[in-house]
Amino acid sequence: xxxxxxxxxxxxxxxxxxxxxxxxxxxxxxxxxxxxxxxxxxxxxxxxxxxxxxxxxxxxxxxxxxxxxxxxxxxxxxxxxxxxxxxxxxxxxxxxxxxxxxxxxxxxxxxxxxxxxxxxxxxxxxxxxxxxxxxxxxxxxxxxxxxxxxxxxxxxxxxxxxxxxxxxxxxxxxxxxxxxxxxxxxxxxxxxxxxxxxxxxxxxxxxxxxxxxxxxxxxxxxxxxxxxxxxxxxxxxxxxxxxxxxxxxxxxxxxxxxxxxxxxxxxxxxxxxxxxxxxxxxxxxxxxxxxxxxxxxxxxxxxxxxxxxx
Length: 310
Prior knowledge:
Elements: H1 2-14, H2 22-29, H3 36-45, E1 51-56, H4 62-75, E2 79-84, H5 87-97, E3 101-103, H6 104-112, E4 122-127, H7 134-147, E5 150-155, H8 168-176, E6 179-181, H9 190-200, H10 204-213, H11 223-240, H12 253-269, E7 276-281, E8 284-289
Helix pairs in contact: 1-7, 1-8, 2-3, 2-4, 3-4, 4-5, 9-10, 11-12
């Protein structure tokens, strides 16, 4: 598999079938709001070669960069499509860049049935490519190579690792080269930007120290106090900014359930919930009420929800 992956990536790296007129590329790279690294990345991915790799930390503005590149490709007459391993990542790619996106699994299912096949004038952008296993990466690159399409792999080899075997993204980046975006744009404060880079490169303790120094890490003596503190923080935040989205996170299901119950109690007392209804779920019967916010844990096409949809 890795041999075929190497062969496909080297061949696509050499092939130059997707030229964008120089004037169009120059205008794209000079677009307002792009940082220097983002502009260079736009220039790199809109080159004519059939395989481009963008390495970037979380929060560096990859989606913004891709939105500018999409406009340039479309102006040059190419059809741009997006894909990611998870449904929620595909949604994020579409929302951030305007590239119509879906999961790699659904794309491969369609190809197997002869639908939505790649064509010569296509550009396929794969987001969070660091999470794609070697077998799937090889299948996607080989399909694109066979169709004469262009592939742009975007990801962070340090972030989440591939669930399946193999570090395909890193291997492809080493074979064909990559352009890097390292300047964090999502956070404005210097210490937050530094912490984001540290989290991206595995220096978690250092990043947490920065947050602690800023008074944003709170310790508790017992688990009960910690849970109560999280719920109190959630309640305070949602009352201060009801239009914003809040979410509490915990590592264990038992804690998730305890946080949920405590939050429901607060909302119930505030008169924000309707009548309780028993609903069978994968995790046993659960009580839901009108007015609650539900977090879906798997894809369901009939309901129109993806894993991670709120």
